[in-house]
Structures are given as structure tokens and as C-alpha cells.
Amino acid sequence: MAITYEENCATFTSIIYEDEVVPFRDFLQNIAPNEVVCDFLSCDDIHFAVLQLMMAYQKSYGCRYEFSEEVKLFEKVLKGFDAKEENCG
What we know:
This protein has 3 helices and 4 strands. By secondary structure, it is of the alpha/beta class. Strands 1-2-3-4 form a 4-stranded mixed β-sheet, covered by helices on one side.
């Protein structure tokens, strides 16, 4: 698996494909309403469906992200998401 889970932390490695959506959703449901920590230090790319889960979780609960020094597209997407916007509901 390209995502490993420990307590409230999900560690993403390599490329995250759409087959990770259901296990990641289950992980988020199990830790809600706690803050999730997403470690992207070794992540190369993420399927957009996984990003959508993160943004939906962030809308209701807390998310903390750890990124590598190389800025990737998924980092720009997550940093640009404003959970407070009215059109997100």
C-alpha cells in the first residue's frame, strides 16, 4: 500500500492511485473528529479523489500537512483550498 496509517497519521509514499480511496475514507471515518496528519514527504503524486476526501475532512475537522521541499501540484491544491468558503458546503 502506498498509504500507511498510525493513530491519526497517514503517510503517503510514491504515487497514490484511486484504489486507495476506500481505505483512506475508512481511516478518516475511524479517527473523526480528531485532526489528521498527512505526511507527504515521500509522495510523488495523488489521485484527485484522495485529495477530495482530505478537503471534505478539512471542512469539518482539522488537517495538518507535511510536505517535502519540492513543491508538487497536489500541495498547491491543498494549500489553495479554503474550507471557510461558502461554496464548499
